[in-house]
Amino acid sequence: MPNFSFTDLFLVCGCTIVVAFLLSIIVDWGLEFFCAEHDKPFFSYGYANHNGPHTWRNYYPECDGKNQSPINLMTKKALVVNDSDDLLWFNYHIPPSCIKIFNDGQTVLVRAQWPEALWPTIICGPLNEQYGFHTILFRWGPEDEEGSEHTVDNRSYAMELQMVHVKKGFTTPLSAIRSGAKDGLVIVSFLFKLMPVDNPLLDRVVYNLWRITSPGSNVTIPAFPLNWFFEPFCSNYYTYNGSLTHPPCSESVLWIIQPEALAISSRQLAEFRKLMSHDGRMTSNSRPVQKNSQDVYFYSSN
Ligand SMILES: *[C@@H]1O[C@H](CO)[C@@H](O)[C@H](O)[C@H]1NC(C)=O
Ligand SMILES: *[C@@H]1O[C@H](CO)[C@@H](O)[C@H](O)[C@H]1NC(C)=O
Ligand SMILES: *[C@@H]1O[C@H](CO)[C@@H](O)[C@H](O)[C@H]1NC(C)=O
Ligand SMILES: *[C@@H]1O[C@H](CO)[C@@H](O)[C@H](O)[C@H]1NC(C)=O
């Protein structure tokens, strides 16, 4: 039997105690780190059960606000503005130098580049300022019959194309929102109705969707002027003060909604539903209509 002196024993035990103490600190720290992560899970909004629209208000209080979007437009209740100033569109016919499409995990984004002087802008109508084009995004649903976020007299449309514009003086939607301006953003919306044949003007985007199937991907596509998608309109549209339809749901958006629907086919819609989010296939990315009662205006030409 080895002959341990008291000092030896003390050294061995002392070291063991120190090592055990250090180990316990590391384990504690590890547990704390691990548990902290579980106490405050990272929230990434989406449209699945665990992160869908009914959960957003828990993480983004503004989603519970009084001027939320989308809404059901009740055409009979809209306040008619007669002989309104025409809404004016500049440079939407100019082909950009480059167009990119993105899968951001929630939708398809279309972004483009022009020389500064040729940047597409809108002005007049209900706008007090000039607004520059920033992004187009799409909203769709699990079935061909429902996909739009806004409804008109309770009618849902197959898809909604939303053109986000940023107030002059700001470069991104986020900077416009952070400024606190109630009119930092203007979103012009187009609804789509189902047609038996493809809409060829959507094909540059639709044909390239398979290249951005995975969330976070992007690709450059052949450029085209934005007015391929739609006919610029001067009057006969709805407008109201609302919010972003996704977190952070900021109430700094003037919506302009063109009630004349564009066309899309069932086959084209199906291509959008093949995209992947972090929660599986993007079968739907529409927030349901919100029950608040903003004034809705109809800007009429006569
Ligand atoms: C706008 O015109 C319509 C029909 O011409 C009329 O009923 C309405 O009272 C007018 N509204 C205003 C605010 O002048
Ligand atoms: C829309 O639905 C609401 C609630 O279900 C109903 O009160 C209203 O009459 C409907 N409006 C139209 C134009 O169908
Ligand atoms: C676009 O995708 C490429 C990889 O293909 C990536 O390097 C780049 O960061 C992406 N751009 C943006 C703005 O997300
Ligand atoms: C939106 O709100 C602003 C004030 O913040 C107001 O001047 C404007 O008339 C409102 N527009 C509509 C369409 O309600």
From TrEMBL:
One of its GO terms (cellular component) is cytoplasm. Belongs to the alpha-carbonic anhydrase family. The chain crosses the membrane at residues 9-31. It comes from the Eukaryota. Keywords: Membrane, Transmembrane, Transmembrane helix. Pfam families: Carb_anhydrase. CDD domains: alpha_CA. The keyword Membrane applies. InterPro entries: CA_dom, CA_dom_sf, Carbonic_anhydrase_a-class. This is Carbonic anhydrase 3. GO terms for molecular function: carbonate dehydratase activity; zinc ion binding. Residues 43-300 form the Alpha-carbonic anhydrase domain.
